[in-house]
């Protein structure tokens, strides 16, 4: 698995999700096979500029113990958001395994305990791995 060292993204902010933010993740519920219990969607800014959105889904406890299950499930959910059947690239960034979409729509996803986190990047920058690592760091610290 490739190891990446993403640049640090600073000044990540979160706010109320817009209708567009929520619609980006609407297909996840259908693709989830009933394994998701709750979800929250928030808007995402970097240095005050709209960068996309973050969705956090709580899964049924104990369901995600298998690494193979996690990998397949993340692919399924990332593809639901991108609306394209492709195989995301799995990378290790700051010790965390995450999937990065490879198509036109930029989405990152990973498991964090019994949660699935999906990041939709709206603009071309920052790099998807850097944005995802920044979201992960800010969630861990907050």
Give a quick set of tags describing it:
single chain; 142 residues; alpha+beta; 4 helices; 8 strands; 30% helix; globular
What does this protein look like?
Helix content is 30%, strand content 37%. The model has no long low-confidence stretch (mean pLDDT 89). An eight-stranded mixed sheet has the order 1-5-6-7-8-4-3-2, sandwiched between helices. By secondary structure, the protein is an alpha+beta fold. The chain starts with a strand and ends with a helix. It is globular, with a radius of gyration of 14 Å. It is built from four helices and eight strands.
| Widest sheet: strand ordering | 1-5-6-7-8-4-3-2
Quaternary structure = single chain
Strand fraction: 35-45%
Average pLDDT metric: 89
Shape: globular
Order of helices and strands: EEHHEEHEEEEH
Topology diagram in text:
Layout: E1 3-4, E2 12-16, H1 19-24, H2 26-31, E3 36-46, E4 49-59, H3 67-82, E5 89-93, E6 96-100, E7 106-112, E8 115-121, H4 128-141
Parallel strand pairs: 1-5
Antiparallel strand pairs: 2-3, 3-4, 4-8, 5-6, 6-7, 7-8
């Amino acid at each position: 698995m490739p190891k990446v060292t993403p640049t640090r993204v600073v000044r990540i902010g979160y706010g109320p999700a817009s209708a567009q933010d929520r619609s980006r993740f609407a297909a996840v519920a259908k693709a989830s096979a009933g394994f998701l219990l709750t979800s929250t969607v928030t808007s995402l800014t970097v240095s005050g500029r709209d960068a996309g959105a973050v969705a956090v889904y709580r899964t049924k406890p104990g369901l995600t113990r298998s690494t193979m299950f996690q990998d397949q499930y993340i692919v399924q959910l990332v593809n639901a958001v991108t609306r394209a059947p492709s195989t995301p690239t799995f990378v290790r960034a700051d010790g965390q395994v995450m999937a990065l979409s490879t198509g036109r729509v930029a989405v990152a996803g990973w498991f964090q305990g019994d949660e699935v986190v999906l990041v939709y990047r709206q603009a071309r920058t920052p790099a998807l791995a850097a944005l995802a690592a920044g979201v992960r760091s800010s969630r861990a610290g907050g």
